[in-house]
Amino acid sequence: MKPTLEDVLVIVDLQNDFCKGGALPTADGHEIVPIVNAVARRFENVVLTQDWHPLGHVSFASAHPGKKPLDTVDMPYGKQTLWPDHVVQGTKGAEFHPGLDVPHAQLVIRKGHNKDVDSYSAFCMVDGKTKTGLAG
C-alpha cells in the first residue's frame, strides 16, 4: 500500500542513548536506521518524537537516593520504573541518531520534559492528563 497525503509516519525516539553505545541502548537498535530512512522517503508527512529529560528527572535512579536502575518507586500517577540517566536535554545522547536522514520531517514532538512526570507514549505523559500535542 502506498501512503496517501493523509498518512503520517511517526518515528519514535531514534536517539543516540537508545542505540549502541548509549546510556539505555536497545539491542541492535541502530540497525533499523537505514530501514527507517527508506520507509520515511515514501511518506510526505513525517513526525519525529524525542525523549527530552531534564537533569534530575523522576525516572532516573540517580534522582532517588539508594535506588538503582530497574527499581520502582510510587509516584502520584502510579509505579515508576527507574532508569539510568538518559536522553538528558542538550546532550549527545538526546540527539537523533547521526544516520537518521529525514530532512523532510515537519515536526519534532519532545516528551518527558516535565521533571516530575515520565512519558512513554508519543501522545500523552504517564499521568494520563498531559498531552504532547501529537494528536493535534
In short:
With 136 residues, this protein is mainly beta. It has one helix at 33-40; strands spanning 8-12, 45-51, 72-75, 78-81, 107-111. The mean pLDDT is 95.
Radius of gyration: 16 Å
Strand order within the widest sheet? 1-2-5
Biggest sheet, in brief? 3 strands, parallel
Give, in order, the helices and strands.
EHEEEE
* SS elements, strand count: 5
Shape: globular
Q: What is the residue-mean pLDDT, rounded to a whole number?
A: 95
Keywords:
single chain, 136 residues, mainly beta, three-stranded parallel β-sheet, two-stranded antiparallel ribbon, 5 strands
Describe this structure in words.
By secondary structure, the chain is mainly beta. The protein has one helix at 33-40; strands at residues 8-12, 45-51, 72-75, 78-81, 107-111. A three-stranded parallel sheet has the order 1-2-5, with no helix packed on it. Strand 1, helix 1 and strand 2 (45-51) form a beta-alpha-beta unit. The longest helix has 8 residues, at 33-40. The chain is globular. The protein starts with 7 loop residues before the first strand and ends in a 25-residue tail after the last strand. The relative contact order is 0.22. The mean pLDDT is 95.
